[in-house]
Design goal:
heterodimer, A: about 350 residues, mainly alpha, two-stranded antiparallel ribbon, about 70% helix, globular, B: about 525 residues, alpha/beta, Rossmann fold, elongated
């Protein structure tokens, strides 16, 4: 009996012996390489989606220059994805700390309404923009205090603002949709063009580069990952875990505020009821599609941007094909399902030999 | 020996996890009609062995014989069907269900496909009556005190026609009276021929109830002893791995063969000067009785005591991981208030936790990131090292500590336990601390890595210029502590119980203090000036 037991591990070892040299198995080598380049998977998904869109939607890749502005489906997708990309970048850091922020859409509504209210009250544009971002900052501080300060469950803590925030915005707008007619400079952020490209893209790029520099040039990226992976060990290593988590929520709300301004500027009005409705869910999806782990730790700012583009391309393609919008939800659901399945460790280990 | 055949016999059990050998050649024999205590320190493999018995772990090698027949339980259910029942440390019953339901959950007596309530309640009452308990079997479990809930758990274990009853630290949440009634029950069960395996770390209880004792150490069966033939002192000896003391023998010479000759202390007591860190009356309610502690640069203070004696609590207070609620600390002559680990790190204190996985390693981060983390955290957000310097630092430690890793960019979670431990040691050495607190730095790692880590600890403190680190070394392994330490503090029941200087070490009294057998005797060990000062 024990003789059989003894030989088993030995035999297994013999079979496994050649496996470590990856050159013999191109598939494994590819997987190994892909594992080191985390951005590859979302980029491949985006490329595949663009290919499908290119085949099924005529003239999808066509770009034309009209009045010094670039037009085309691709530009359209980028432009429309801009608020989502901002929100996704903010959520990326929150999720990296093991948190979640479901109040993103509410902050979008608050920021848009505050800006529109002030502009309609003839305040200078810069004051309106600052006030809107200030309101977003307050929202972030509130979330941060609840989560980091009081230790509430992130989803419950931010649920408060999700519900209350939209109500506050509606109170502020007196239940009306605030339509802005002037000044024209208000429409630059969401509808203007610079060097032939939408201004919104430059804003997204600026936020991305600034955040990326902050994360990589300083130790912030390392700290956020450490807190997300193991908060107890991070505290014992001397990190200010509370402050880091707090800052993530503040950053997330600021991004959402900027997205709210962009949306208000684009639709030339502030709609407290519908602006940014369920944006947080798309943003969470974008983070996940981009390779961020909802369990915290692993994150990729660039990946989240790609994730946002995947979502927008998906919606755009479905609409272009004339499929009813209800189906969009189903398709999104299928994509989410596929992503979650591919992230599940149980599923992955089944794929191993 | 026993004439009867062992009802349960485990031999040559091996079980390992990546980087850790949980059990190597472990064994156990249980006879019908005995209470057998399984003893060992934290991490000695007691719970792993029980998990093998109850089918939660499948051993790589070894066999389990029940009545001489080889069995391989693959789940708790199978183990139960074989007659091996377990009562776990934390009562794992359903508080909202009735007593009878809890006893028969999953095995309700049925009648025409429906639960036969009268039969179930009748059987439950009969079972409890056998245990000399009268309870309302229809009462919800949560209405009972914890001790009775524990009894219900035992009743449940017995209802499965158990022949072997395993009690995993059943007394840890019971008061004295409840323990006595539990013991009375165990004695009756013993008389009925039940084989009872009792796991505990309370020495008093072991001696009150057991017939025989199996001691485990480092995943192995250290030995099996009739309770009456094993003194408390000898038992503690065996648990902590000290050499068996010959009565009256000089222990410090006996140790000489295995350990290198003790290096001379950095300075004699007269020239030690002011302690780098002085704790006075440092304590925390429920964790540690106020204690005084002096840590000198260039010296290793060993902290020993059994599980729950307050070792880790002391370390956490000194590091600011838990706030102290009494006493004061001064570092290099300055009064220091620790509100968080950050404060302690800023003052030059480093702490390697005993819980490597939860409180040390950040598993998904690379070896390099884990090593620079504390240094970078102390500096704040601004990068203190360039990418190249970071690599150089990490590679330097990988070389000097002999960390076995594919590269410094490998996630630390892929390393073996010993190498993770070395990387965490590197994390703290990178901060160049004045005081290094090592809590069980050698737990769960292989012998070679143990030796290496201890050599490093010794080398760190012994610097010729007298500016070596102060080290607080905590270990369950007495030989390790004795080998490293210049000074020894023994904790028992969350209070300081004895202090020794190297040279005046008397291992037997150390063991006596650990075991608590000197409780009435005056502290004979406290005969050095330093110790007397503390005792005053």
């Amino acid at each position: 009996m024990s003789g059989v037991d003894l030989t088993q591990p030995l035999r297994r070892k013999r079979v496994r012996a050649p496996a470590p040299s990856p050159a013999q198995q191109p598939w494994q080598r590819l997987r190994h390489w892909a594992g080191r380049h985390a951005l590859l998977q979302p980029l491949a998904a985006l490329a595949l989606l663009l290919l499908v869109a290119g085949i099924s939607v005529p003239g999808f890749f066509a770009l034309e220059l009209k009045d010094g502005h670039l037009y085309g489906s691709l530009i359209d997708i980028l432009n429309r994805a801009a608020p989502l990309m901002l929100a996704a970048m903010g959520l990326t850091l929150v999720i990296a700390t093991r948190g979640i922020d479901v109040s993103v859409g509410a902050v979008v509504a608050i920021a848009g309404t505050v800006a529109a209210t002030l502009v309609l009250a003839q305040a200078p544009l810069w004051q309106a923009l600052c006030a809107a971002l200030g309101a977003a900052l307050v929202c972030g501080v509130w979330n941060g205090l609840l989560v980091a300060g009081l230790g509430l469950q992130p989803i419950i803590a931010t649920l408060i603002l999700m519900v209350a925030g939209r109500g506050l915005a509606q109170l502020c707008a007196d239940g009306q949709i605030l339509t802005v007619y002037s000044p024209a400079s208000f429409f630059v952020l969401g509808g203007g063009y610079l060097l032939g490209l939408p201004v919104a893209l430059f804003v997204v790029a600026a936020v991305f580069i600034a955040t990326q520099l902050l994360l990589r040039r300083t130790a912030l990226g390392l700290f956020i990952q450490a807190v997300g992976i193991n908060p107890v060990a991070a505290r014992l290593a001397g990190l200010r875990t509370t402050a880091l988590i707090f800052l993530a929520y503040v950053f997330c709300s600021l991004c959402a505020g900027l997205a709210g301004l962009m949306i208000a500027s684009n639709i030339k009005s502030a709609d407290a009821n519908n602006a940014g409705l369920l944006l947080e869910l798309d943003a969470i999806l974008a983070v996940t599609l981009g390779g961020g782990s909802l369990a915290g730790g692993r994150f990729s700012l660039a990946g989240s941007l790609v994730g946002a583009l995947i979502i927008q391309t998906l919606s755009y393609t479905i609409y272009s094909l004339g499929v009813p919008p209800e189906v969009n939800m189903v398709v999104k659901a299928i994509v989410v399902f596929a992503v979650c399945i591919s992230q599940s460790t149980a599923f992955r280990s089944k794929g191993q030999p | 020996m026993k004439p009867a055949q062992a009802v349960l016999e485990l031999t040559g059990i091996h079980k390992s996890f990546p980087g850790v050998k949980a059990l190597s050649d472990a064994g156990l024999r249980l006879y019908p009609g005995e209470v057998h205590t399984l003893m060992g320190q934290n991490g000695a493999g007691k719970s792993s062995l029980i998990k093998v018995l109850t089918g939660l772990y499948t051993p790589e090698r070894g066999e389990i014989r029940l009545d001489g027949r080889i069995v391989r339980p693959r789940s708790t259910r199978e183990a139960q069907a074989l007659g091996i029942s377990t009562v776990y440390q934390e009562v794992n019953l359903c508080p909202n269900l009735s007593v009878a339901e809890n006893i028969f959950i999953g095995r309700h007596p049925r009648r025409w496909g429906r639960i036969d309530w009268p039969a179930m309640e009748g059987q439950a009452a009969a079972l409890l009556a056998d245990m000399e308990l009268t309870l309302d079997v229809r009462a919800p479990l949560h209405s009972l005190p914890l001790s009775l809930q524990q009894m219900v758990a035992i009743a449940r274990a017995l209802s499965t026609q158990a022949r072997v009853l395993i009690l995993d630290e059943p007394t840890s949440s019971l008061d004295e009276a409840a323990v006595q009634s539990l013991f009375a029950l165990l004695r009756r069960l013993r008389a009925q021929g039940m084989a009872i395996l009792f796991v505990t770390h309370f020495l008093d209880q072991t001696y009150a109830i057991s017939d025989r004792i199996t001691v485990m150490r480092q995943g192995e069966r250290e030995g099996e002893y009739p309770c009456s033939a094993l003194s408390r002192l000898a038992l503690v000896n065996k648990m902590v791995g000290a050499p068996a003391p010959e009565p009256g023998a000089d222990l410090s010479t006996e140790r000489g063969s295995t350990a290198p000759p003790p290096a001379p202390p950095a300075a004699s007591p007269q020239e030690r000067g002011e302690a780098w860190l002085q704790a006075r009356g440092l304590g925390r309610r429920g964790a540690l009785q106020p204690l005084d502690l002096d840590l000198h640069r260039g010296e290793v203070l060993g902290l020993c005591g059994l599980l729950g004696s307050g070792r880790t609590e002391t370390a956490r207070l000194l590091f600011g991981a838990d706030p102290a609620d009494s006493g004061s600390l001064s570092v290099a002559g300055q009064r220091l208030r620790l509100r968080s680990p950050r404060d302690a790190i800023a003052a030059g204190i480093a702490f390697c936790s005993e819980d490597r996985k939860h409180e040390g390693a950040i598993l998904a981060l690379s070896v390099r990131e884990n090593i620079v983390l504390a240094l970078q955290a102390r500096a704040g957000l601004r990068r203190v090292l360039s990418a190249a310097q970071e690599r150089e630092l990490a590679e330097g430690f990988v070389r000097s500590l002999g960390i076995k890793t594919a590269s410094i960019d490998t996630p630390i979670g892929l390393l073996s336990g010993g190498n993770q431990q070395k990387a965490l040691l590197a994390r703290w050495l990178a901060t160049d601390p004045a005081l290094l607190i090592l809590d069980e730095p050698t737990r769960g790692i292989d012998v070679r890595a143990k030796e290496e880590i201890m050599d490093h600890v010794t080398a760190l403190s012994r610097r010729p210029d007298g500016q070596g680190m102060a080290v607080l070394f905590i270990s369950s392994e007495l030989p390790e502590v004795l080998r490293c330490s210049d000074q020894l503090l023994v904790l028992r029941d969350r209070r300081a119980s004895g202090e020794y200087r190297r040279g005046s070490l008397d291992e037997r009294s150390v063991l006596a203090v650990i075991a608590g057998t000197d409780a009435t005797a005056p502290p004979a060990a406290l005969h050095t000036p330093a110790a007397l000062e503390l005792a005053a």
